[in-house]
């Protein structure tokens, strides 16, 4: 006898994802509802997803809050109150699906669950090195993505950036992995992270000195305060976390992310230099 569907609605984020969407939706057949929230794709993303049984919801960002994920929590009717956000290049392993089923059927008081990524880079699943966790299994009445004052900061656009949702209740960590395997060429990774570093730098510059931090994971909050981030990250990921055991892919990933943190720092310093003449001029006018 087949097991009942997992009582979770999966919201799949897409924009021109025809190369990845079939594998993603195919891996979600154990869930009770799959909804593809598409941002005006110009390829066959919607056609493929609909053919695999997913419900399609179109999203067109109006340039204001809420951004895409919070908009879904506020506007997309779902069969279940537990929501799993995934990107089109992500898919849960069987162990993670079993963990999610057990978790939601236990009627938890938790607001959300944190999932660990199995990150693929340079054609290889990384078993060591830096660990990435995402809080993407949410109870829709206990979690939300609050505005972070980034509408006019380039780099992210319609998407919430690299921060965690605000939760009214405990956040737990589940066993199993959310596989992240982007089929696009590696140049697209660098294109995205160039844009992401614009956002990170702009947000850090804007929020410097403020007491209220961006909601990040505990690991992210610690790393925010580390000096010499590019060097520290590379040593941490490649040596201390044994990234070298993943071979050349482990080196490539550690080096690429270290360069990403270098970009953020460089761009933030540029923003500060650009702001200094304006600050001096304002002081003289007084």
UniProtKB/TrEMBL annotation:
The keyword Glycosyltransferase applies. InterPro entries: Glyco_trans_2-like, Nucleotide-diphossugar_trans. Its EC number is 2.4.-.-. The keyword Transferase applies. It is an enzyme of class 2 (transferase). One of its GO terms (molecular function) is glycosyltransferase activity. It holds the Pfam family Glycos_transf_2. Residues 9-144 form the Glycosyltransferase 2-like domain. Keywords: Glycosyltransferase, Transferase. This is Glycosyltransferase family 2 protein.
């Amino acid at each position: 006898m087949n097991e009942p569907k997992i009582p979770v609605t999966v919201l799949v984020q897409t924009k021109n994802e025809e190369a990845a969407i079939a594998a993603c939706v195919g891996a979600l057949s154990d869930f009770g509802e799959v909804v593809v929230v598409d941002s005006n794709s110009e390829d066959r993303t919607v056609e493929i997803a609909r053919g695999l049984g997913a419900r399609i919801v179109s999203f067109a960002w109006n340039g204001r809050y809420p951004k895409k994920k919070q908009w879904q929590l506020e506007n997309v009717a779902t069969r279940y109150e537990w929501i799993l956000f995934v990107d089109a290049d992500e898919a849960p392993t069987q162990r993670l699906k079993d963990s999610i089923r057990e978790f939601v059927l236990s009627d938890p008081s938790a607001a959300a669950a944190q999932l660990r990524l199995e990150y693929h880079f340079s054609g290889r699943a990384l078993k060591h090195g830096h660990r990435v966790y995402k809080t993407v299994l949410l109870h829709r009445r206990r979690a939300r993505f609050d505005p972070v004052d980034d509408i006019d900061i380039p780099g992210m656009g319609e998407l919430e950036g690299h921060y965690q949702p605000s939760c009214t209740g405990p956040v737990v960590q589940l066993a199993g992995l959310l596989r992240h395997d982007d089929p696009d060429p590696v140049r697209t990774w660098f294109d995205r992270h160039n844009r992401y570093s614009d956002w990170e730098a702009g947000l850090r510059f804007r929020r410097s000195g403020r007491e209220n931090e961006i909601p990040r994971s505990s690991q992210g909050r610690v790393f925010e305060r580390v000096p010499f981030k590019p060097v520290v990250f590379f040593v941490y990921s490649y040596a201390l976390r044994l990234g070298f055991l993943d071979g050349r892919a482990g080196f490539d990933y550690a080096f690429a992310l270290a360069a990403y943190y270098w970009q953020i720092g460089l761009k933030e310093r540029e923003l500060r230099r650009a702001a200094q003449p304006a600050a001096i001029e304002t002081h003289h006018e007084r």
